[in-house]
Design a protein that fits this description.
The structure is a homodimer. Chain A has about 160 residues and is mainly α. The relative contact order of chain A is 0.10. The first copy, chain A, contains seven helices and three strands.
DNA sequence: GCCAGTTCTCTCGACATCAAGACATATCAT
DNA sequence: ATGATATGTCTTGATGTCGAGAGAACTGGC
């Protein structure tokens, strides 16, 4: 069975027979899968009235454990956005009642962003649904295949995590 | 050896011991890898004075084969952007001298976007460099492992391509 | 103590994208 | 022919992000 990537590779081979386009078989599929995952995530979050960026911030706080609070600085490093973006995001999450801004008692420049009860409830429900959906996406693979896949991906990822 | 994703999974297990977070081992690694690939691509393109979006449009034209031309409509479907975005992109590529807009002789509404010689040279060089970089990224895997990985990814991707 | 350099959050302006719609041309059934 | 619908491209307005920098507070060496 031929898939989209096979057709892509075939088109390149026809146009650039001088090049080794093998890498596309792995890497183009990874990029495509990531796009599909983003779409699937977006659909799950929409059912909980959350945008992907809201989920990203809320899960960072949720993973921190009680009392579910982090500084804006730690949040922006956790979510890989700039400080201007994070200020905007916290503003909107605060307006939605999902987080609160508190003064940092140990640093007068600082602020702590804390998950509200409403925020915790919301993100917990969305995360459970997300995992259910991700489970479905992996349904085509046996447990052994999933382990193999995870291992190969880990090898590929290792050089970047340095 | 523990990687970032292992730590992420451990954090979730501590906070949500009720959930099966196994899917993250595969799917979170795919998303992370895609982000790293985007960064690597961006770096390669920068050496050729190209933005990722420019590369996307130019490669769509390049893959079409001689005379390297497509309508804006086909381009936007190939690159998954909206028509407003594509108009803007073609405007800028035309200003940069990498493509030209020609009237479509068979449809008076239509336009054909054609790669200039300068555009073809540029995208060919960038693509060769990209493949070299992607080859490096896969260096940690044996040829057999790459095949296994490509096969597993294809299985995961199949349900989306319907 | 004090000053230089660092860290923290927020503000501002520029920009690429999207969604919706405008406008012209094609296509098809009647 | 004619009208209705579809198609193709471009325009417009809103939005979220980034990059640069401002202002306040912390830190360490002297």
């Amino acid at each position: 069975m031929e898939d989209e990537v096979d057709r892509l590779v075939a088109a390149w081979r026809a146009e650039r027979p001088d090049l080794d386009v093998q890498p596309l078989h792995v890497l183009s599929r990874i990029s495509r899968l990531a796009r599909h995952l983003d779409r699937a995530r977006r659909a799950v979050f929409a059912a909980h009235d959350l945008e992907p960026w809201e989920f990203d911030v809320l899960t960072a706080l949720r993973r921190a454990g009680r009392p579910y609070q982090l500084s804006p600085g730690r949040l922006l490093r956790a979510t890989l956005v700039t400080s201007g973006t994070m200020t905007n995001r916290i503003d909107r999450l605060e307006a939605a009642g999902l987080v609160r801004r508190l003064p940092d008692p140990t640093d007068k420049r600082g602020v702590l962003v804390r998950l509200t009860d409403k925020g915790r409830t919301r993100v917990d429900a969305a995360f459970a649904d997300l995992l259910a959906r991700e489970h479905d996406i992996l349904a085509g693979l046996s447990p052994a295949e999933r382990d193999t896949l995870a291992g190969l991906l880990r090898t590929l990822l290792a050089p970047f995590d340095l």
